[in-house]
Amino acid sequence: MGRRTKYKVCLSTEQRERLWAIARNGYQPAKKMLHARILLMADRAHPDGNWQDQQIAQALSVHPNTVARVRKLFVSDGETQALGRKPRAQPPIKPKLSDAKIAKLLALYHDGPPPGHDYWSLSLLVRELKAQKIVKHICRETVRKILKEQGIRLSRRKRA
User: Fold this and answer.
1) What is the CA radius of gyration of the chain?
2) Nearest alpha carbon to residue 67 among 40, 30, 29
3) What is the pLDDT of residues 10-31, one digit of tens each?
4) At what angle do helices 122-131 and 140-149 cross, to 10 degrees?
5) In 3D, which of 35, 38, 40 has the Cα closest to residue 54?
């Protein structure tokens, strides 16, 4: 005999309809659809539900631990946590420049180009950042992305 289920899934009618729509539409991520199917099969409040973990795992070709984990997430944390992926605590790559250095870059840009130049170019900005020892090494693309995030687009016309 199987062990008793510790986390019992009981879906309301609205939840069941929402999960049914997710599981059937085909436009959701595959994991989300799979987790919706697991919850629908595990639902104790519906006559088509109330499957055991082993039966669900066998029917959907997943490990029984996956079924147990989805049940537990649904009961303890709610529907969104059970269906969605866990968000990252930190980005995979740390930012190249800190907020203070970004502020210095923006201040440098707003002070205007150095004497002898009519406009800022990416190469000129990179050169100035290195000359003022704000950074040791930086790529033009990094500077361009930072300026783009701030809504700044470099052009070849004089600054007023």
Assistant:
1) 27
2) 40
3) 899 999 999 999 999 888 999 9
4) 100
5) 38
